[in-house]
Write a structure and sequence with these properties.
Layout: H1 25-36, H2 38-53, H3 57-81, H4 87-96, H5 98-135, H6 141-158, H7 160-188, H8 207-218, H9 237-266, H10 271-275, H11 280-289, H12 294-324, H13 343-360, H14 366-399, H15 406-428, H16 439-466
Helix pairs in contact: 1-7, 1-9, 1-12, 2-8, 2-12, 3-8, 3-9, 3-14, 3-15, 4-5, 4-14, 5-6, 5-12, 5-13, 5-14, 5-16, 6-7, 6-12, 6-13, 7-9, 7-11, 7-12, 8-15, 9-11, 11-12, 12-13, 14-15, 14-16
C-alpha cells in the first residue's frame, strides 16, 4: 500500500520523503538540458576551445561528449538498481561505507555551492551589461543577481513540478533563440559556407591541441547529470532518468557542434580571430541579426536563468538526502509541509553561494571572476565524478556479483576514470597563476574537514549507507 507522507514530509518509517511521481521523462530531460545551459556555456567557452583545437573545434566537442557519456554510465548503472536523491553521494557511500560518504558529501556540497556562484555572477553581470547596452542605464549586478536568486528560490520552494517545468520552458525558449541566431548567421555569411571545421585533420597540433581543448569542452556538459538527484520524484525513475540524461548529452552535443560550425563560418574558419574574441558566437550573431541582435542576448539571459533554476532544483536534493542519511547535518533534511520541498537545504545552498559570490565577484568584473569561481567549484565536483566511476565496480562486486557485467561495470568505468584525468589535471597542475594555484589547496582543506567530520560521525551513518531504506519501494504497492 502506498505510504502517505505526514507532517514535514515524514513517512511512517520516520524518513523525510520527497513527492513521488511528480515528474515525467520530459521534465527530467528539460532539467538536464537546462543545467547544461548551451547558450551561456558556449558563449563564454568557445573562444578558448577554438584557440586550443583550431578550426576543427567541433571534433573536440564530440570527443568530450563521448567522455561524458562514459562518465555518466556509472551514474546510470547505480540509478537502475538503487536510485536515490543523494545521487553521487549515496552511491559512493553504498560502495565504500558511511565515512567515505561523509567526505564525499562535504566535498560535493562545497563544490556545488561554489559552482552555482559562477552562474549567479554571470546572471547579474550579463544582465547588467545588456541593460547598459540597450537602455543606457547602469544597474549594479549585485541586486540583479539577488532578484533572480529570490525568484529561483521561490519556484523551487513551490515544488519540483513547477521548478522543473519552468526550467524546461526556459530552455525551449533559449533553444528557439539559438536556432534563430544560427539561421541568421548562415544566411548572412552564405558566401563563406564551409564544413572544413568538421575535418579531424584540421585540429591544431593534432593530439596535443585536442588535449588542450578537451577539458574545456568537457565542462560544457558539467550539469547534465544533475537530474539523477530527482529520481525519487520521477515516474518509473529507473528507466526514465537514464533515458533523459543520455538523450540530453546527445541533444546538447548537436547544439554545440552546430553553434561551433556556424561561428567558424562567420569568421572564415580562422581560429585565431575566434580565440581573440570574448564571445565569438554573440559577435557573429549580432552582425547577422542587425537590429534584432538583442535576441542573442536574450538567449544568454534565458540560458543562465534556466541553468540557475535547474541546478538549484537538483543540487538541493543531494544536500537534503545527505542530511537525511546523516552524512551532513540532519537539519538539511527538513521539508516544507505544504510543498514537500527541501527548504533547509535550499536556504543553506543559497546563503552559502550568495555570501561568497557577492563578496568575491564584487572585487572586479563579475563576468571575469565568474570563471575563477567556477574553477574552484569544479575541482571537488570532478573528484566526485572520479570516485563514482571507481565505486561502480566495487559496489557490484561487493553486493551484486551475480549481476556484474564486465563491460558496463568495469571497462566503461575505467574508461570514465581515464577520461577525467586530463581535465582534472588541468585544474590542479602546479605552476598556475594566482588564484588558480591556491584552489587545489582549498579543495584539499575541504576534503580534510570532511575526513575529520567522518571520523567523528561516520559510524552513525554506516548502517544507512550500506543498507538504506528504498524511497521508491515505499511509494509503490
Amino acid at each position: 500500500m502506498t505510504t502517505v507522507p505526514s507532517g514535514d514530509g515524514d513517512t511512517a518509517s520516520g524518513h523525510p520523503r520527497l513527492r513521488h511521481n511528480a515528474l515525467g521523462v520530459g521534465d527530467i530531460l528539460g532539467v538536464s538540458l537546462a543545467d547544461t545551459a548551451p547558450a551561456m556555456s558556449f558563449f563564454f567557452s568557445f573562444a578558448a576551445i577554438a584557440a586550443a583545437a583550431g578550426v576543427a573545434s567541433p571534433i573536440a566537442i564530440v570527443v568530450a561528449a563521448i567522455a561524458v557519456l562514459l562518465k555518466l554510465n556509472s551514474l546510470v548503472e547505480f540509478t537502475k538498481v538503487i536510485p536515490s536523491a543523494g545521487s553521487y553521494v549515496s552511491y559512493i557511500a553504498k560502495a565504500f561505507g558511511g565515512r567515505v560518504g561523509v567526505v564525499t558529501a562535504w566535498a560535493l556540497g562545497f563544490g556545488y555551492i561554489v559552482a552555482v556562484g559562477y552562474v549567479m555572477a554571470v546572471m547579474g553581470g550579463f544582465t547588467s551589461q545588456v541593460i547598459q547596452q540597450y537602455l543606457h542605464v547602469h544597474v549594479p549586478w549585485q541586486p540583479i543577481a539577488v532578484v533572480f536568486v529570490v525568484l529561483v528560490s521561490y519556484l523551487v520552494y513551490r515544488g519540483v513540478t513547477i521548478s522543473a517545468r519552468w526550467a524546461s520552458a526556459s530552455f525551449a525558449f533559449e533553444l528557439a533563440l539559438i536556432v534563430v541566431a544560427m539561421i541568421a548567421i548562415v544566411v548572412h555569411y552564405h558566401n563563406q559556407l564551409s564544413l572544413v571545421s568538421l575535418d579531424p585533420a584540421k585540429i591544431s597540433r593534432g593530439i596535443s591541441g585536442l588535449g588542450l581543448a578537451f577539458p574545456l569542452a568537457v565542462f560544457l556538459f558539467i550539469g547534465v547529470g544533475n537530474p539523477g538527484a530527482m529520481v525519487e520524484e520521477t515516474r518509473d525513475a529507473r528507466r526514465s532518468v537514464p533515458r533523459a540524461i543520455y538523450t540530453a548529452v546527445i541533444v546538447a552535443t548537436i547544439i554545440y557542434v552546430l553553434m561551433a560550425v556556424t561561428t567558424s563560418i562567420a569568421f572564415h574558419n580562422d581560429p585565431t580571430t575566434i580565440g581573440n574574441l570574448a564571445a565569438p558566437f554573440v559577435t557573429a550573431a549580432s552582425h547577422a541579426l542587425g537590429p534584432f541582435a538583442i535576441l542573442v542576448y536574450l538567449a544568454g539571459l534565458t540560458s543562465t536563468f534556466s541553468s540557475l533554476l535547474g541546478a538549484t532544483t537538483a543540487q538541493t536534493r543531494i544536500l537534503f538526502s545527505a542530511g537525511r542519511d546523516g552524512m551532513l547535518p540532519r537539519g538539511l533534511a527538513r521539508l516544507s509541509s505544504r510543498h514537500q520541498t527541501p527548504v533547509s537545504a535550499l536556504a543553506v545552498y543559497w546563503i552559502g553561494a550568495g555570501v561568497m559570490t557577492l563578496i568575491w565577484a564584487s572585487t572586479g568584473n563579475p563576468l571575469v571572476l565568474a570563471g575563477d569561481i567556477a574553477t574552484l567549484g569544479t575541482i571537488p565536483i570532478a573528484l566526485t565524478y572520479l570516485a563514482l566511476n571507481i565505486a561502480l565496480p566495487v559496489y557490484y562486486l561487493r553486493f551484486h556479483r551475480e549481476a556484474f557485467a564486465p563491460l558496463r561495470h568495469l571497462v566503461i568505468p575505467v574508461l570514465g576514470v581515464a577520461s577525467l584525468i586530463l581535465p582534472l589535471w588541468g585544474l590542479i597542475k602546479p605552476g598556475q597563476p594566482y588564484p588558480f594555484n591556491v584552489f587545489p589547496y582549498i579543495a584539499l582543506a575541504v576534503i580534510a574537514i570532511g575526513v575529520v567530520v567522518s571520523l567523528a560521525t561516520g559510524h552513525r551513518v554506516r548502517p544507512l549507507a550500506e543498507a538504506p531504506f528504498d524511497p521508491l519501494a515505499e511509494a509503490t504497492d
